[in-house]
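Students often ask what a holo structure prediction actually looks like on paper. The answer is less mysterious than it sounds. You provide the chain, you provide the ligand, and the output is a string of discrete structure tokens encoding the 3D arrangement of the protein together with zinc ion.
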Amino acid sequence: MTKIKAYAADNKDANLKPFEIERRETLKDDVKIDIMYCGVCHSDLHQVQNDWKNSVYPVVPGHEIIGKVLEVGDGVTKFKVGDLVGVGCLVDSCKSCSACEDNLEQFCENGATWTYNSKDKHLGGHTFGGYSESVTVNKEFVLKVPENLDAKAAAPLLCAGITTYSPLAYWGVKKGDKVGVIGLGGLGHMGIKFAHAMGANTVMITTSPSKSEDAKKLGADAVLISKDEAQMKEHANSFDFLLNTIPVGHDMNPYAALLKRDATMVIVGAVEPLDPLHGGSLIMGRKSIAGSLIGGLKETQEMLDFCGEHNVVSDIEMIDIQNINEAYDRLQKSDVKYRFVIDMKSLKNN
Ligand code: NAP
Ligand code: ZN
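The corresponding structure tokens follow.
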């Protein structure tokens, strides 16, 4: 076992602070990764604050990991020392249930192992995430990152990227479709970039008029201010697809009203109770509301390759680990452009 530096929260009210964790020795099928960058997902904040009521402390968050391979086990041929690689939200699954057989490890029927806050099969206790110097992961859960991408701006692809790419791909968004992305944060800005790259007519649906110019630069053809009833009325019954990234419970009725007949709104943000939905808002127009959770490993690799081909990365604000608590305060206020990424040199050199 190796002891390494990390940042952790001790309880739901605590600030993150320096903490030491252990990583296992590199096993036959393992890849040991030197973490260069780690994105800051709103899920990190939810779990630090125990919003989902399942946090185990101390929490070392971080599931948008980019780094270089430091060491590989004897059974690893796909990766070699020095390769640029990524790790997302998953580090293990049973690999034999029907979900795993369908390359949907995130829905593993025997319980996937999440990058942090999951039972650690090797060391006991629970897993620790990417706000740390290094991580050792089974080769099946390590992704190749196209070398043409800016490594730090590619970090958020590992969660924000796949979480938005997967529903757009699964629900078959195509050229010319009118696609709305609700919430311009980490997920939302990737949603707009992907929908635009797929040829859709994209609309950023936001509560923040101040983000309008940025939304257009990111690839939105139009901006819809969700608090403006007249604007919402103008767009009623017109969307082929909606991707809803709002991080908290909310009233979905005004958004359902935007869907065309037979269209779907996919919820990825609110992992918590939603306000009551009027049945009529789905019945009148045979509309659907669905959910989606990250994506499996195969699809995550496909998404990274798509990003390599289309040169899609995140718009990021780099921070040092010492500024993580300030970044969380800003994330809470929807004030991030559009993903914080931690430069892990700040942890190593301190
Ligand atoms: P984020 O960067 O904080 O962005 C969320 C955006 O939603 C905000 O910038 C804001 O955009 C909008 N918003 C915030 N509060 C709102 C409210 N009360 N009503 C309406 N809009 C509101 O968060 P993120 O990292 O993109 O994550 C979004 C959510 O997805 C989080 O809950 C996270 O845990 C979840 N998540 C889910 C998955 C999955 O697999 N399903 C994966 C990753 C993350 P505007 O200012 O434009 O309105
Ligand atoms: Zn995430």
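Residues 41-43, 46, 159, 163, 183-188, 206-208, 211, 245-248, 250, 268-269, 292-294, 331, 334, 336 surround NAP (ligand 1) (CB under 6 Å).
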